[in-house]
Design the sequence.
């Protein structure tokens, strides 16, 4: 990413984001780099994060402002500054530009978001924690791994799938952690070059001795589908299986066209009662015809979780407890989550007179 096009001064950041300076760049593999961000004192509270969360970046590219989410590989318990790791994707406009960032560059960043987190209030030290990472999907599970080693003695198993040995991100750090915590941490590598793509039978074999745990999965779609399906077939509780899915959204002009069509289609629906349950408190707010659930919440002054506002990060997930909604775009919610009543507040509009939503605590 050339300095001339990428550098953003604090005044150039968007209204909901902040300009942060890159203070270190780490070459992890031939096609993956970590960017360490400097957080000024007045933004440290805003950028406090939980292990497993992500940052959303807005990157100028060919006259457009493209949005991408990258999970933090750092841990708030062990690392002084947040660090994201970006793997270069062939033809990827943003990943290639992010892999050209230099120390001193400014990046346009939204505050941390995401629900791919271990419940800190229920430590369950006797239950195993099983982490599945595929390729650059290691980043959020690595954050969870380091944090759990710091604050808990529960057994941890990391199953990490990669193309080959040269593709293993954080190889040395993982080896050092496994050596430092031999009785707590087990790291198992699955290489396509040796075993082929991970199969259900291999997952079953790797899971031996880890039944009844908490499971966190992040990586390529087929990899995550195989692992999640196998866990469910083994009878593991669905509520203990956590999957992080990221996709690249359409370009801004395409999103604007979708938004305009969805708004026009929803104008006929008039919501008389929109009830929001947030942090244990109930709020009844106004809902303007055509507005999304997120737009209505923000207009009412409610600080509900959100990040990309484009339907691909999942930060604004909420459950429809009563009434009906219509969702324009969904790139992150699974069929199981949809069946449970989850929706994306940034992409959903009321489809009836009364709607009640609950955001996760």
Sequence:
């Amino acid at each position: 990413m050339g300095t001339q096009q990428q550098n953003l001064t604090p005044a150039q950041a968007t209204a909901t984001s902040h300009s942060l300076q890159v203070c270190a760049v780490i070459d992890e593999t031939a096609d993956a780099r970590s960017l360490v961000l400097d957080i000024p004192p007045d933004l440290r509270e805003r950028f406090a994060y939980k292990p497993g969360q992500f940052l959303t970046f807005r990157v100028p590219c060919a006259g457009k402002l493209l949005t991408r989410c990258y999970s933090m590989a750092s841990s708030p318990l062990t690392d002084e500054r947040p660090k994201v790791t970006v793997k270069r994707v062939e033809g990827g406009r943003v990943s290639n530009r992010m892999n050209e960032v230099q120390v001193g560059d400014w990046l346009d960043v939204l505050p941390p978001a995401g629900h791919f987190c271990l419940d800190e209030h229920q430590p369950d030290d006797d239950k195993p924690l099983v982490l599945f990472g595929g390729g650059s999907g290691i980043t959020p599970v690595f954050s969870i791994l380091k944090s759990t080693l710091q604050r808990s003695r529960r057994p941890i198993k990391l199953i990490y799938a990669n193309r080959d040995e040269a593709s293993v991100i954080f190889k040395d750090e993982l080896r050092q952690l496994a050596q430092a915590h031999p009785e707590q941490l087990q790291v198992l590598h699955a290489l396509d070059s040796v075993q082929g793509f991970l199969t259900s039978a291999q997952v079953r074999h790797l899971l031996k001795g880890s039944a009844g745990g908490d499971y966190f999965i992040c990586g390529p779609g087929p990899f995550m589908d195989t692992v999640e399906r196998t866990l469910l077939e083994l009878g593991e509780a669905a509520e203990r299986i956590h999957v992080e899915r990221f996709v690249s959204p359409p370009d801004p002009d395409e999103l604007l066209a979708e938004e305009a069509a969805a708004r026009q289609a929803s104008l006929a629906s008039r919501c008389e009662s929109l009830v929001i349950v947030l942090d244990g408190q109930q709020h009844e707010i106004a809902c303007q015809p055509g507005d999304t659930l997120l737009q209505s919440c923000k207009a009412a002054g409610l600080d509900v979780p959100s990040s990309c506002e484009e339907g691909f990060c999942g930060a604004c997930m909420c459950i429809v407890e009563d009434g009906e909604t219509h969702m324009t775009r969904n790139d992150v919610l699974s069929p199981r989550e949809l069946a449970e009543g989850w929706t994306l507040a940034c992409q959903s509009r009321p489809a009836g007179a009364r709607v009640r939503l609950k955001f996760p605590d």
The chain has three domains: 18-113, 129-244, 252-358. Residues 279 and 361 are 5 Å apart (CA to CA). The radius of gyration is 21 Å. Residues 252-358 form a domain with the Ubiquitin-like (UB roll) fold (CATH 3.10.20.30).
